[in-house]
Write a structure and sequence with these properties.
Elements: E1 25-26, H1 37-49, E2 52-53, E3 61-62, E4 65-66, E5 73-74, E6 86-87, H2 94-101, H3 107-110, E7 124-125, H4 128-135, E8 155-157, E9 171-174, E10 184-193, E11 199-207, E12 212-218, H5 219-227, E13 232-236, H6 239-243, H7 256-260, E14 269-271, E15 277-280, E16 284-289, E17 299-304, E18 307-313, E19 318-323, E20 328-335, E21 345-355, E22 360-362, E23 367-374, E24 377-385, E25 392-396, H8 399-404, E26 406-409, E27 419-428, E28 431-442
Length: about 450
């Protein structure tokens, strides 16, 4: 029997496999009833770096190839999905990704972002900055270049730059190797000391091709790692100052409780985007009826808000495609041959859109975006300078903005850009959707 997807949960105590065994004591034990934010950062990082999953089909893209069907992988895939795909943990639950893994007709196997989105392959994924931002309890990611004290408050360079000074929750920043090149961030998740209190090993966890990973280095190897490529070790001294209002607890996602739980994956039917997921209004919803246990299924039932929308007699195995223009929360389940009901797939149909004031805006002046949404709250306008990756800004949408149907963009966010990407991000209980448009900035 094939081994099904599973999550490996790691608590706050020292766990070492024979492969990463190290002597001494670790500094991540929690002896109280509550966790510090640093301890939470380790716990949340490991949700993504320790998850185990096995592709059920070939065709799932990764850097320079494909993941192999039947092979178990540890850690979520690396893919810079931008506004096209979805970031695991921010845009979708981890369980949504795991459900998509179990569906051979899901977007993981039928979609490929390679050549469409820079630094992306898989439709669902994570990158270094979305990995550390998730662990550090942000509501939206910060790109790697702006993690440090040059851009953020509440963070400092650690002195000395060595394993002996490292602490769980510290960030390692690797600057671009060349102009306009990519930077990188890693998270320190464990520091091991001997009986004399000297650091012997440091564990680093990160998102990089092909999946998230963790590496336990000796103190000397850690120092050598820091010394290469002009890396810097940062320490966040004030998390709220560093996040600057970008707090996970202010939003529905990330949802660490659901991400850390072991989901029950539907064995009868799954959606092309997995399960527990939102769709844009009018977007095709592809329901793959699998009936893995051969129980027989006389009918497929689709409901909206608990009321039957459609019942399909004798659908058989295979994909049933439908589009829904009416927004709401939907379910799809099968009536089995013995009269029982299968587990239901859950999804939302939502509208999320916006309009810009014109094709261009004037530098030095504020401007407004008109919002349109249904069955989804618009939560963030993310603005990114198309020519400079570190020039990014978040405008958080208030209840008052939503009631007014518009949000004001401060003049300061376009001060240095000639062209700005404008992303509208919305969320409901099933995940997030994104829309992007570009706008020119004129003097």
């Amino acid at each position: 029997m094939r081994t099904f997807t599973k999550i490996l949960l790691i608590g706050f105590f020292c766990i070492f496999t024979l492969a990463d065994a190290a002597p001494g004591r670790c500094e991540e034990a929690n002896t109280g009833d509550s966790l510090t934010w640093q301890q939470k950062s380790v716990e949340y990082a490991r949700i993504m770096s320790r998850v185990k999953w096995t592709p059920v089909a070939d065709g799932m893209p990764k850097r320079s190839g494909h993941f192999i069907a039947g092979t178990e992988y540890t850690g979520v895939p690396y893919s810079s999905v931008k506004h096209v795909g979805r970031y695991i943990g921010f845009d979708i639950y981890l369980k949504t990704f795991l459900a998509a893994v179990e569906n051979p007709q899901s977007v993981l196997y039928t979609e490929n972002l390679y050549g469409k989105v820079s630094n992306a392959e898989c439709y669902y994924g994570k990158v270094c900055s979305s990995y550390t931002s998730y662990a550090l309890q942000c509501g939206i990611w910060y790109v790697s270049k702006v993690h440090g004290p040059e851009f953020r408050a509440g963070v400092t360079i650690v002195e000395p730059q060595s394993a002996q000074a490292a602490q769980p929750g510290d960030i390692i920043y690797t600057p671009p190797a060349k102009k306009n090149g990519g930077s990188h961030v890693e998270l320190v998740t464990e520091v091991v000391r001997n009986e004399d209190g000297k650091v012997t090993h440091v564990r680093i966890e990160e998102s990089r091709p092909e999946t998230t990973s963790n590496t336990l280095r000796s103190a000397s190897a850690f120092d050598a790692h820091l010394a290469s490529r002009n890396r810097e070790l940062y320490r966040i001294t004030d998390l709220d100052a560093w996040r600057e209002g970008n707090k996970a607890e202010s939003f529905l996602f990330p949802n660490y409780e659901d991400d850390s739980a072991s989901p029950q994956i539907n064995r009868v039917l799954l959606l092309d985007r997995g399960d527990w997921v939102p769709y844009h209004s009018g977007q095709p919803v592809k329901i793959n009826i699998m009936d893995r246990d051969g129980r027989g299924l006389p009918s497929l039932v689709i409901k909206r808000g608990g009321k039957v929308v459609e019942e399909i007699e004798h659908p058989g195995k295979g994909v049933v495609e439908r589009s829904f223009d009416i927004c709401g929360d939907y379910t799809a389940h099968c009536v089995m041959k013995d009269g029982s009901l299968s587990q239901a797939c859950e999804f939302a149909v939502s509208e999320l859109d916006f309009s810009l004031p014109a094709e261009h805006v004037s530098r030095g002046k504020s401007w407004e975006i008109e919002l349109t949404s249904d069955n989804m709250n618009a939560i963030i306008v993310y603005l990114k300078n198309s020519a400079e990756g570190s020039d990014e800004h978040n405008v958080f949408i208030t209840d008052e903005d939503r009631r007014a149907g518009k949000v004001t963009i401060p003049a300061s966010v376009i001060q240095n850009a000639d062209k700005m990407q404008v992303w509208l991000i919305g969320e409901n209980r099933y995940g997030r959707l994104k829309q992007r448009r570009d706008i020119q900035v004129t003097d």
